[in-house]
Structures are given as C-alpha cells and as structure tokens.
Amino acid sequence: MDSENAVKVVRLLKRLCLREDVAAAVVIHQPSAKVFELFDQLILLSKGRCIFSDQTSKIPRWYKHELKFKMPPNHLLTDDLLEKSMNWSSTPGSTKAEKNEILLPTKAVESKVSSAQHKGTNTLWTFSCIFFRNLENHYVRNLTNLAARIFIYALTAVLLGLMFWQAGNNKGQTVTNQDAQILLGAGLFLAQSSILLPFAQISTFFFDKNVFAAENALGLYQPWMYALSQFLLEAWVLIMSAGVQASVTIPMIGLWNPTWPRASSFLTMLSFFCISGLVGNSIILLICMISFSQDLAFLNGSTYVTLGLAASGGFVPFYVIPSWLRWLQWTSVIKYALQMFIQTAFSGTSVTLIEGLKLNTPGTITLNLVIMMGMFAIFASLSIVFLSIQKERR
C-alpha cells in the first residue's frame, strides 16, 4: 500500500471509530510522515519494554529531556524513532544498546520497567487516562448496569424495611432487650446485604484483571494506578448506593437513637452503610485477584462471608463457640459492622443486650469504624500486590 492510500485508510478508520463508537486496529509498516501525523498517541517499545507512551505532541519534549537530542524534521521522524527503539539503552543520553544485552531480558518479561524509561510520560496524565477510560467503559457506556445496581440496593432496603417495619421506633431512653433483639437481627441483615451486594461486580473485576494483565505485559503504567482508579470509581457508586439504603431503611425501620439528635443518628448510621459496602467491595476485589475463575471467586467469597456471619456474634453468642474457633470473630468484618450498628442504635439507652452478648469489643463506634477502615486498607493493598503479579494468558 502506497503512502496516499495509507492516509486514506487511516482517515476512514478514524471517522468510522468516531461515528460508530468502535475501536479499530491497523498495522502499517514503516509509516510515512503523512500517515504518522494522523495519529494522536504513540506507544514505542524496545526489546519488550515501553520507552514512550504519550501523545505525539509530547515527542519533542521526550527527545529533549530523555534522549538529549534535537528532534529531526517531520519527514525523518518515523525512521529516527525506529532507529532509537532498536538501539535503546536505559542510560540517559545514550542510544546504543549494550553488547551483552539479550533481545528479551528477564526484567522485560516480568514487566518491571525502570523509572528512567517512564520519564517521557506524566504520571498524573497516565492515571487520568486509566481513570476516565474505566469510567467510560464501566459506567458511562453501561448506564443500564449502574441503574440496575442502585435499583437492587433500593429494592433490598425496601424489603428489609418492610420486614422490620418501625421495629426501632422507640420514644425516650427506655428500650427493652426484646426490642433490641429485633433491631439486632435487622442490623445483621443490613450488614450482610451491604457486604454481599458488591459480589455482583465479580465479572467486571475479572474483565479488569484480564485487561490489566495484557497491558502490564507492555509496562504501560504501574499497577497501583489501575487499582486506585477502580477503587475510586467503585467508591462513589457504593457511597451513592449507601445513601439510598440509609434514606430508605432508617425511616422505615426507625433506626434513630432516641438519645441523639436525628441528624447525628442518621449520619452515623450512614457511615455504617458506607464502610460496610466499601469493605465488601475490597474483599471481593481481593478474592478475584487470587482466584483463577469466576466460579472459584464466588465460592471463596461465599465461604468468607458464611464464616464471618457465624463468627459475628449475631447468631451464636461467642461463649457458645468452641474456644479453639472463637478467634475467627477477629477476622469477621460483619462483627465490627454489627457492633457499629447496635452501638449507634442503643448508645445512651438502658439496653443491656450488648454487654450480655459481648458485642462491645471494641466498645466504641469510632474504634469499630477505624478497624473496618484498616481492614479495607489491608484488602486494598493486597489487591494491588496480587494485581501486579498477574500474567497475560494466551
């Protein structure tokens, strides 16, 4: 294909992609200057490593700061880029490869690209590209799925609200242990639903894992960028869903602490919904990173939640659990969520159920919240670690 026809093909593909909202790939060997000017971004590889990944307008800066050379004229640029990639060395200012360097070194296969090779790409710009790409792919282009998630959260909240209708609508500080027992059940189901509902994202997380593995093989960006963008995008969805849950269940069940102002009671209970959803999301993300298939991820996730429920103290008192299994309570996120819930509902009242069931370790809302945030940080950090070692399967 001559240069003129190549230009026509590239322009046609660009119009098609913009009109039909699709992606197209084309392979052009030794593109001419006219063809090269039609492209907006460039990923330049050398010996299995990424040495440039940015907009084509940033190429002059890359020549100046990384190569320490003056950029050649446009009609010679493509040939010079190919020459630089073939003779690339990690030493700044040098364009000659070391004699003993093999074609695909071990470090390249492991996708551990040195920081010197990323100087041509701005970290903030790279992160913003990943963030907005995931935003568009998972949320903007899939509004139906997003709306369905919020609808399921709202529907679950309505059903639980009807089951425990006005169970906590008590006036004054006198709340009986029988009433508290009913609210304890409501809190247990609310905590469980907040942690289980993020399991719907398992297929999305597996898709992301496969996409990252393919891109990680090229060393385009650091693993934390992908993981952080996913956490931020999921966080705003979960916080929005938690707001829906709180707005529905709190007035329907009557989850107002009778000794607190309504605003304080609502905001504290809202934080219970938010942190429970965030921890549940981080749990399932970690499980997806360490599982080989979606079926195994469902199995591992349900196993963790089942054990967490059994060890939460909401169904079986801790003193009934055998001493050699009692330690499981400290690994159960549902235990801390349940304690935060009942302490928010009964703090300052005459209820003695909390002390009787030993659901007061730790004994404050703040400490339970801090522990859950710590568990979120641990699960999120482990997700980044396991994400970084993902390998592309072909």
What can you see in these coordinates?
- The protein is mainly alpha-helical and 394 residues long.
- It folds into two domains: 3-117, no CATH class; 125-388, no CATH class.
- The protein contains 15 helices and two strands.
- The two termini are 31 Å apart.
- Mean pLDDT is 79; it is low at 91-120.
Residues in β-strands, percent: under 5%
Helix content: 55-70%
Going across the biggest sheet, name each strand in turn.
Answer: 1-2
* Gap from first CA to last CA: 31 Å
Which oligomerization state do the chains in this entry correspond to?
single chain
Largest sheet: 2 strands, antiparallel
Arithmetic mean of pLDDT:
79
Tally of DSSP β-strands: 2
The structural class is mainly alpha
Low-pLDDT regions:
91-120
Number of helices: 15
